[in-house]
Design goal:
Oligomer: single chain
Shape: globular
Strand order of the largest sheet: 1-2
CATH class: Mainly Alpha
CATH architecture: Up-down Bundle
Order of helices and strands: EEHHHHH
Number of strands: 2
Distance between the termini: 40 Å
Radius of gyration: 17 Å
Number of helices: 5
Number of domains: 1
Largest sheet: 2 strands, antiparallel
Length: 163
């Protein structure tokens, strides 16, 4: 099987239902942002030696694949992110000032993933305002950016729980 089909040479791509739309559409922009986010999460995972963190990040990549497929997206996935945020936040000091993104390689990549997540959230909001979107997509992306921020802070703390 060849990887290329030439079907997109006219500037269109197929949706799951077979409908063809412009590669310049807001829907495809949203899917692209989510794909980029998943790639950066995979990159961040490559800098962690902690199996628990790698599992969390891999689960998120699977969630993002489902999220971008326009299927029903379970609210429980949003709640699961909240539990993980609470777990990692418990070992962090409260923030009383802004922090600059960066630090360790792992933290830097988690921060980059967080900013891509925020962009994906913005394009998802625009898509929901124009065409509609499953109701749990935006809350998931919003919570995910919070989780990525929390994980980056944890990575910079140097705890074995995340490194």
């Amino acid at each position: 099987m060849k990887i290329y089909t030439k079907n997109g040479d006219d500037g269109t791509t197929s949706l799951r239902d077979g409908k063809r739309i412009s590669k310049n559409s807001l829907r495809i922009d949203t899917y692209g942002d989510i794909d980029e986010l998943s790639s950066f999460i995979g990159l961040a995972a490559s800098f962690s030696r902690n199996k628990n963190l790698k599992t969390i990040l891999l689960d998120i990549q699977h969630d993002l694949f489902i999220l971008a497929s326009d299927t029903n997206f379970d609210e429980e996935k949003v709640k699961k992110l909240e539990l993980i945020i609470d777990e990692f936040s418990a070992s962090l000091k409260p923030l009383n000032h802004f922090i600059l993104p960066g630090g360790t390689k792992l933290a830097g990549h988690l921060h980059a993933a967080r900013t891509i997540c925020r962009r994906a959230e913005r394009t998802a909001v625009a898509l929901s305002e124009n065409e509609g979107l499953h109701k749990n997509v935006i809350p998931y992306l919003n919570r995910l950016s919070d989780l990525l921020f929390t994980l980056a802070r944890s990575a910079n703390k140097g705890k074995d729980i995340i490194a």
